Input
Amino acid sequence: MKRSLSILFVLLISTSVSFSQEEKDIESALKLFQKDKEKGIAKMEKTMIGSTNSKYWDVMVKMYHERFQEKDGGNSMTNPVFSDFVNTCRRATLASRSPLASEYLRKLFSENEPDSLVSQSNKILLQKGDESMKAKDYPVAQKYYQQAIRNDARFFKARIDAGECYRYMKMPDSAIAAYKQAIAINADYVDAWKGLVDAMIDKNDFIFVIDQAINGLIVYPDEELFNRFYYIQSKQHKTINRYWFPRKYTINSLKLDNEPVEEEPWKTYRAAKEEIKSYCNKDGVIIVDNNLTKTKYMEVYAWEKMLKRPECIRIAFFDFARKMQSVGYLDCYVFFAMFHNDLYNQYESFSSNNKKKITSYIEKHMTVK
Output
């Protein structure tokens, strides 16, 4: 998702019936950002107080990303510019369903480099293909990609780019084949699933594509892929409701610092971490038998504790969570519908053993006919 700030802002206002005051403030912050990044970000921060708008958060995430790219310093949380960028992505995916923040966090922390053993000569072929793609010379680009694939059948990125190129060439069947071949090499990369779904949509396949979208979402509940899933289901006259809601506080973590919380029911949620952590591994997976819970995950235990609070009866946001708890799907709701990258290690453990359960949850409790 390589979008400039100006393109993001155009996309933002293109859906507006009128230019709101908030959008005027964002435009002002963007203009200031072009002159002085620190002042522009400071103004944007003030504008974003209390916002749950995903498009607005995309803009702020992009600001922090451009600031990081300019100053660099490395992908380490000891680098304050990188840390600011990452934490803004985390805030964005707590407050909203920001596709850009979702993608950045996924690629930074949940996906490893698939082509680390690719030869330099093949990397050059890929680069030449990408340059030809940028120049819209698709047949030439495809020749480079296919040569790279002939040289190394497991060159994942070459198959991904070949699929994208086939889409530009209006060859959806070839694109579908390329993406499926990439998935056969490594099924853990969301971009391959997104490409496959897009190619099937190009072909107006709104039936078989549903299963592929679900397969990709189970690998990683990526916000862009969710948006595709909403669209696919709408073509079947169905609606998807995740019952997602924004959160003000960070996800319980044994690796990251969590701010103290005094507001119930989140105070109880935070306290649950301290109660259960001695039974968990570093990822929050419960590995020691205990008398506190039957669940295998710290996050689910924290929700179990939180949902006992009287505030959860009075606050409508928690109604669906309590319903899912009563029918045995609280884990699916917590990990899948309310997914956040800070939960990835627990989610990975859960999803690897519960693919059928997640699929059933989507069909029974997220899909409204």
User: Anything to note?
Assistant: The longest strand covers residues 239-240. The chain has a mean pLDDT of 94.
